[in-house]
Design a protein that fits this description.
mainly alpha, 414 residues, single chain
Amino acid sequence: MVGRRRLGRDFGRLWAAYAVSAYGSGLGFGALPLIAVLALHASPAEVAALSAVGPAMGALVALPLAPWVEFRRKRPVMVAMDLVRCAAMATIPVAYAFGLLGFVHLLVVSAVVAAAKIAFNVAGGAFLKALVPPDDLLVANARFESTNWSSIAVGPPLGGAATGLFGPVVTVAADALSYLLSALGIAAIRGREEDPRPRPAGARPLRAGALLDGWRHLLGDPALRALYLNQILVSGLIMATEPLLAVLLLRRLEFPPWQYGLAFALPCLGGLVGSRLARRAVARFGRPAVFRTAGTLRAVWLIGLAFVRPGVVGLVTVIAVELAIVVNMSLYTPVLATYRLERTPKHLVARTLTAWSVGQQASTALCTALGGLLATATGPRTALTVAGLLILATPPLLPRRDRVTPRTAPEPAA
């Protein structure tokens, strides 16, 4: 069992800090689009812009941070990024209380949080690779994946109830507090962090091309290239449905906020199943089979969201589609994260993870923006149909079996 393997006290503290942050974010899942719809009466195009422009701006801000993160101790970077997210999210309830909250404010906060999230995840991936033995990376990633899905299962129903009782910004305040607690937890890790590769005194500044080294590594490895292109398309199309569903369920079909939260929360219990099966599936069937099977099955169900109807039938439809996607996604993701770390040398981890995150954010932003424009012109149901059809073309991009080799990427000579 994944949960019985001991990975050390420092990993336990890192995991606990991640859990606090994840549960806070689960409570505020979809909070910014929800605030835009309920408090600012935003149009479908504005809701889509909020989900697209903010992350895209955040990706641009995060891009030049990659070489900086590469040559810094990772734990202070993670603490700093948590504090930045806490401060940014805290401005929303303050502005709302004084009647100053506007759509541009939400866009700025979305961009800041997106940039800080990328930098945090990049530093966290490099820190995890140094903290956990290679044989335990899949176990560690599966635990993070399980925590992520359980937080979304618990958070949105509570967040929807809190929104109905206390207003639309209370969950944002809880999310801000969770980042502060996460920063304190990461700061409490006692293990001495290994110094990053130092640059000699008087050395020339990092060349501009260092920003592209992550993409060179991803696109130069046939297996990583196929997984990368598949991932940015699948995640972009899946995430593009979030604002479309918010408009369809909350405005067109008049679902109450608690049902909207429930429609996303219950399927996340499937994430506990998929993440716990990841290690067993790789041991029994092999990593190539997991990539091909789970990678295909996480994509084929999205078209079902186009058939959502009012009432209980519509609610059950959303839950069933999301459940099928989540089970396969939670099985696929930790295997992918582990393979990516294994194939990446230590001196390129931060830049490679930044390239991956920026590409994923850019794809999400583009798909979401196009989905919003299409929904404005034709309606959210048509936009959901197009997303569901496009994602059916992504499984052929998965790598062939002979390209997914188990070797670990070689480290450069000192």
